[in-house]
């Protein structure tokens, strides 16, 4: 399997500095700063990128689970809400709320929910993050 890379560059001190984050293949490059991470400033932040990775991984795993069960999804759309909270040890990602809507012809609500839960438990990014953060799921059939 290939090894995926990403990089970041930071200039200056924590609160007034700034940086860039980019993926190895050039699919994404964005600015980030203290304000974009801990306030409401422009740019991205590591937590948004974790959310994007998790939403993408979950959507693919869910699509595979549906196909393995004999259902071909028309679409799977997922939002990941990453909670960065301050605790006794400092800041940490404490919870990720996955919200997915799937358009899947011929499936019932129960089967849809069961396959979605399996994808949440088994996608590689969920498995990576679940020991340190609670992962919740809201799955709706369109």
UniProtKB/TrEMBL annotation:
GO molecular function list: peroxidase activity
Chain spans, region Disordered: 1-22
InterPro entries: KH_dom-like_a/b, OsmC/Ohr_fam, OsmC/Ohrsf, OsmC_Ohr_Peroxiredoxin, Peroxiredoxin_OsmC
GO biological process: response to oxidative stress
Biased composition (Polar residues): 8-21
Domain of life of the native organism: Bacteria
Record's protein name: Peroxiredoxin
Origin species: Actinoplanes nipponensis
Species lineage: Bacteria, Bacillati, Actinomycetota, Actinomycetes, Micromonosporales
